[in-house]
Automatic annotation (TrEMBL):
GO function term, MF aspect, one: oxidoreductase activity, acting on a sulfur group of donors, disulfide as acceptor
Signal peptide bounds: 1-26
Family (UniProt): Belongs to the GILT family.
Keyword Glycoprotein: yes
Protein name per its UniProtKB record: Thioredoxin-like fold domain-containing protein
Species, as recorded: Prymnesium polylepis
Superkingdom of this protein's organism: Eukaryota
Keywords carried by this UniProt record: Glycoprotein, Secreted, Signal
GO cellular component entries: extracellular region
Major localization class: secreted
Subcellular location, record wording: Secreted
Length: 213
């Protein structure tokens, strides 16, 4: 129409970005150890309850990571160290293969979170726990075993260690691991975040979840 305002390409881009940002889900970003007692307690109670809370899993993105590091740069030092594990991180190796390095393309959110909460409840050897929990979330144990016995496992450990080094520079190579450690939309809730604190923080973002009512 004559006299109608014209939106420039830059204005349109900004409008679309603003819409995308407004419509994005809040993120629960957590880093956990495969065998540390506080991590297992968190996964089997707080995380399990949170993920099952009405409407949460559909309105929140869960972004998980494994606690693994080396004394030197992970690019060159592959003597992996994980909380409450033997040198080399044998438990985390199985875990990372199961969740495919927390891959969001090859593993659904239900599979990633479900495997973690199952693992933290399970008993037995790392392999038996992997088998049990893989079955519970419909993961292929043959694929996981091939990863564990092949070169892929090392690449997954390396990627996880690089992330840990970048995310937690103050204890990237020594000292306490400071896990479980949770962020909600970038807000650091530390490693003592309880169910109510995380839920309240998520609800404050404006999500439409029945658990927030």
């Amino acid at each position: 129409a004559v006299g109608a305002p014209v939106m420039s390409a830059s204005m349109l881009t900004m409008a679309l970005l603003g819409f995308a940002s407004h419509g994005s889900k809040p993120v629960v970003d957590g880093t956990f150890g495969a065998n540390c007692p506080p991590c297992k307690e968190f996964g089997s109670t707080v995380l399990k309850q949170l993920y099952a809370a009405d409407g949460i899993k559909d309105t929140v993105t869960f972004d998980m990571h494994s606690a693994i590091r080396s004394a030197g740069s992970p690019a060159t030092d592959h003597s992996w160290d994980c909380p409450d594990e033997e040198p080399g991180c044998p438990m985390t190796k199985w875990f990372l293969c199961a969740v495919d390095g927390w891959n969001t393309t090859t593993r659904t959110q239900d599979q990633r979170v479900g495997f973690l909460t199952c693992w933290d409840d399970a008993t037995g050897t790392s392999e038996s726990k992997t088998r049990e929990c893989a079955k519970s979330v419909s993961l292929d144990m043959d694929e996981i075993t091939a990863c564990h016995s092949g070169i892929k496992a090392e690449s997954l450990q390396l990627a996880a260690a690089k992330y840990f080094e970048q995310r937690f520079p103050s204890h990237a190579h020594s000292g306490i691991f400071d896990v479980p450690h949770v962020f909600v939309d970038g807000k650091d809730l530390g490693y003592q975040a309880d169910y109510q604190t995380i839920l309240k923080t998520l609800c404050a973002t404006g999500i439409e979840a029945a658990a927030c009512k």
